[in-house]
Amino acid sequence: MVDFNWIEFQELGDSRGSLVSIEVGNQKQVPFEVKRLYYIYRTEEGVSRGYHAHKNLKQIAFAIHGNCDMVLDDGINRQTVRLDDPTKGILIENMVWREMHNFSSDCVLLVLASEHYDEGDYIRDYQRFIEHCAGKG
Ligand code: T46
């Protein structure tokens, strides 16, 4: 099994609709200091994204609308998880290969990230990722 965790947030809904609050300075909710957030939306049907790992970055990803599948691969095991719940974020540690597939046309992925954007932190070649995992990278 790939080492990942779901982080559940309380739904503060009432008769008007739903609301989820994420207190970014509160490490009980988000186990790292959030330095960046981004969102992915209007992904075209049939398009896949990701295909990389991060050397140091930790992230929490939520489908705050719609759904998609995320493949997580730690170099030994590979697992697919469904993102479809705005109250449940997936905590992805560093050195996990990820791919996103099967986006619904209305999917909005919100991602909280532990570091600022750094292209040098990406491993975009799967063979290099496997070599890194084996300590040869
Ligand atoms: C991840 C998955 C879940 C920036 O300039 N700043 C940013 O903060 C980000 C996230 C991206 N970019 C640029 C880099 C590329 O030129 O935006 C372009 C698209 O990024 P990328 O091809 O890396 O997008 P995805 O959807 O494949 O991956 C993204 C994140 O990059 C990645 O960290 O884990 O979502």
Strand-helix topology:
Elements: E1 5-8, E2 36-41, E3 49-54, E4 59-65, E5 68-73, E6 78-83, E7 88-92, E8 97-101, E9 108-113, E10 122-123, H1 126-133
Antiparallel strand pairs: 1-7, 2-9, 3-8, 3-10, 4-7, 4-9, 5-6, 5-8
The site of dTDP-4-keto-6-deoxyglucose has 10 residues, from strand 2, strand 3 and strand 4.
Description:
With 137 residues, the chain is mainly beta. It has a single domain (5-9, 32-133), classed as Jelly Rolls (Sandwich). The protein has one helix spanning 126-133, and strands spanning 5-8, 36-41, 49-54, 59-65, 68-73, 78-83, 88-92, 97-101, 108-113, 122-123. It has a 5-stranded antiparallel beta sheet, with no helix packed on it. The protein has a 5-stranded antiparallel beta sheet with strand order 6-5-8-3-10. Strand 5 (68-73) and strand 6 form a beta hairpin. It is globular. Bound molecules: dTDP-4-keto-6-deoxyglucose. DTDP-4-keto-6-deoxyglucose binds at residues 36, 38, 40, 49-50, 59, 61, 98, 111, 117.
